[in-house]
Amino acid sequence: MAAGDTRKQIIDAADDLFYGLGFSQTSFADIAAAVNISRGNFYYHFKTKDEILEAVIDKRLADRETLLSRWDETAARPEDRIACFIRIVIANQTKIMAYGCPVGTLTTELSKLDHPAKDKANRIMALFRDWLVRQFEVLGTGALAKDHALHVLGWSQGVATLAQAFKDEAYVQREVDSILAWLDGVRSAAQAAG
Amino acid sequence: MAAGDTRKQIIDAADDLFYGLGFSQTSFADIAAAVNISRGNFYYHFKTKDEILEAVIDKRLADRETLLSRWDETAARPEDRIACFIRIVIANQTKIMAYGCPVGTLTTELSKLDHPAKDKANRIMALFRDWLVRQFEVLGTGALAKDHALHVLGWSQGVATLAQAFKDEAYVQREVDSILAWLDGVRSAAQAAG
DNA sequence: TGGCTAATAGGTCAATTGTCCTAGTCGGGC
DNA sequence: GCCCGACTAGGACAATTGACCTATTAGCCA
């Protein structure tokens, strides 16, 4: 097996396990078992557990950048792109009900651990924020773009947390409908002002 | 020192540590050091770590029940009571920016651990939800009371998560203003209909 | 004072953790 | 065929964990 393959497999397995169990609760043994390699072999690819974490965060950053770029391409209007973001809580509903939001739960955990990589993890959150700011700017909300962006981002975190706690699919759907209606109000207000 | 005292001190220290570090990251040694007793003495008061967790959750449940009862007494109108709930994200802003929401982060962590006490932890979340439902019912929102309650509860979770990630006080204040305006809209609509 | 029980201290235990080392295998270039 | 570097396996290591035990003290009651 080529080195790149094993390394990628380790990162993928760690990504899943960090999401499902949390970072500190995932052991080297867990990852090694998932990839089916010996624990010792691990040390060849990653010197420390923190190194794996950094690689996982890098991968998540790249994945999200790809996702946002795709939305930029496939959805022409900014309101449609924002709607894509809103609807991921439905697309990923099953996983969110089981493990919460992968971005939110990681930033929360690393923050509590006061882990050196917490700032890097926050960058994933900031990536979504900045992308949303751009969409609202294109939508024509002017100085309110940042406020609206944080509002939508915070909304997604709240929905994910309650979805995990109560496992209520209807609640998620209602919240999506509700924020889409809010988004439409923001759009029409911006277009009336512009 | 009386037995009740030491036990209470252990629970208080564990409460703080579980909030600041997380449950699984807090060790017996951490709690013992905080209370200034020997590790061995621990076993006399609590047989297992899970037993401490249950005691902490019970304490949090009791604390929140007291808090909600106080709001029931001091605030006459339901909209004022709901506003009390909304404003705790400002009252506890410093701690929330450091550690997130004590209720949300615990339920998320225990859910990932698939811990036996996760349902009990969820009861704190449910306590707030049911209280909010009652307030919205008194407010006269009829069948929408449950939807509104979950909306406010999810809002608080989202604000706490982003407050911790971005440490943006102005964001928190804006969100509070915004949801208070929403609450006022709900109130006037309910009173117009009633 | 003597005795009993609640409470505490300190240490042991096996298990698990992240880290690290060494011996070995494999495959392509000379 | 040989060699060298990439890769892997398996285990050693100290540290930490939750759990558990025993000896000792403190406080109260008779």
From TrEMBL, chains A, B:
What species does this protein belong to?
A: Roseibium sediminicola
- What's the name of the protein? TetR/AcrR family transcriptional regulator
Superkingdom in the source lineage? Bacteria
PANTHER family listed in its UniProt record: HTH-TYPE TRANSCRIPTIONAL REGULATOR YJDC (PTHR47506:SF1), TRANSCRIPTIONAL REGULATORY PROTEIN (PTHR47506)
User: InterPro entries this protein is in?
Assistant: Homeodomain-like_sf (IPR009057), HTH_TetR (IPR001647), Tet_transcr_reg_TetR-rel_C_sf (IPR036271)
Task: List the stretches of this chain annotated as a DNA-binding region.
Answer: 27-46
Residues spanning the membrane: none
Question: Which Pfam families does the record associate with it?
Answer: TetR_N (PF00440)
Which UniProt keywords are listed? DNA-binding, Transcription, Transcription regulation
Record-annotated HTH tetR-type domain positions? 4-64
